[in-house]
Amino acid sequence: MNFVEELKWRGMIHDIMPGTEELLNKEMTSGYIGFDPTADSLHIGHMVQVMLLMHFQRAGHTPVALVGGATGMIGDPSGKSEERNLLDEDSLRKNQEGIKKQLSKFLDFQSDKPNRAIMVNNYDWMKEYSFLGFIREIGKHITVNYMMSKDSVKKRIGSESKEGMSFTEFSYQLVQGTDFLHLYSNYGCRLQMGGSDQWGNIVTGTELIRRKAGGEAYALTCPLITKSDGTKFGKTESGNVWLDADKTTPYQFYQFWLNVSDEDAEKYIKIFTILGKEEIESVINEHNKAPHERFLQKRLAEEVTVMVHSRNDYEGAVEASQILFGKGTTETLQKMSEGTFLSVFEGVPVFDVNRDVIKSRVSIAELCAEKSQIFASKGELRRLVQGGGLSLNKVKIENPEMPVTEEMLLNNKYILVQKGKKSYFLIRVS
Fold first, then answer.
1. What span, in angstroms and rounded, lies between the C-alpha atoms of 150 and 4?
2. Which of 23, 79, 120, 331 has its Cα between 20 and 30 A from that of 30?
């Protein structure tokens, strides 16, 4: 597989240093991407970098995932308008472990193959530097003029910036350049990849390698992902879409991809899946025959959810999605985790009831009309039951005097009440 050709048709190249493609076609090469450990999980904003490394390994090269323990203590100024909070070492270590676990789903760290992935932490070599050692060994090779010419610096010290830029952040590109130099010297790493906002930091590294080691290194960046409507990719109203199932449930994750626009889905299926060119074209053609069926979005959501989570999680997310359209069963509800259950019924009215009420074997009529205000009266409830329009936990109710028991509680806490086809209510027992 030609790595650069693969990225080109997928729309994943923004800038590439001359000579990069020739190097990669000539020999197995090590290439790295840095991941910022400000959280113990990656989110879908990191997924493009993950896919770059995945394609890199599939093309026969050695991917190096660098977790920025040192750079995370400084904060990358690229694309930022203000300085951010710095993390302590314990937090960074915890975050690194979470990131490695996630990257292991995409990259082969374990096999005996010569191009198995490597994970490094720049804190391990940066902690050895004294301040004087750093400015003597590294600082003297890069001029201030060179550093000032970078966009990430210009934006922060220009007239539109109120805060300016601390020396800590100004030094960031030197620290990142030192990473590249270290990996070049110790791992034979000759390529750094990243988002297009990283170009300035990356070429500082290639320059440092040229000036200090007399070597030649290369750079490749991918475009920053945008949505067709101009809003930020990877964000929802509730915040980031995380790869960690505890932070973003597989159902929410699946729904994110399912709900993207046709235009975005066509772009994303090339970037966020490893499906081949012919198969993607076939999926797009199939979608265009009946766009309302969202074939493209469904396939995108399937591929990414299975890759990030699992086939079981994907199937559970599909089942959960069908509940609101009347296809779900009691068994489906019982299988759901509390997080997924609450995601599905987000925004549904919730009524709190004491557990003692359930223990007293209260009737359905009394629970829904007196202990909660789902119905204005028992008479209204009975009329709906007669018309076959009331369900509890997806089971149609025929006897309004039937007692409600603890065994009926979903996640030992909830009862789902459904009026007609589309009106849902939750009773939460505490």
1. 26
2. 79
Q: How many CB atoms lie within 10 A of CB 38?
A: 16
* Catalytic choice (226, 236, 386, 405): 236
- pLDDT, residue 90, reads 82
Annotated catalytic residue 38: yes
CA dihedral sign, ordered 8, 10, 11, 13: negative
| List 38, 329, 330, 332, catalytic entry | 38
Instruction: Check 113, 140, 210, 232 and give the catalytic one.
Output: 232
CA 204 vs. chain centroid, Å, equals 28
Q: Give the pLDDT of residue 78.
A: 60
Ranges in the chain, pLDDT < 70: 73-86, 159-161
Using an 8 Å Cβ cutoff, are 336 and 320 in contact?
yes
CB-based burial of residue 70 (10 Å sphere; 0-12 exposed, 13-18 middle, 19+ buried)?
Answer: buried
* Dihedral sign from CA coordinates of 175, 179, 184, 189: negative
State the DSSP string of 285-327.
HHHHH-GGG-HHHHHHHHHHHHHHS-HHHHHHHHHHHHHTTT-
How far apart are the C-alpha atoms of 169 and 171, rounded to whole Å? 5
Catalytic: 421? Answer: no
Task: State yes or no: is 197 an active-site residue.
Answer: yes
Q: Would the CA dihedral through 322, 326, 332, 334 be positive or negative?
A: positive
Longest dimension (CA), the chain: 87
Q: Report yes or no: 382 and 365 within 8 Å, Cβ to Cβ.
A: yes
Tell me the whole-structure pTM to 2 decimals: 0.85
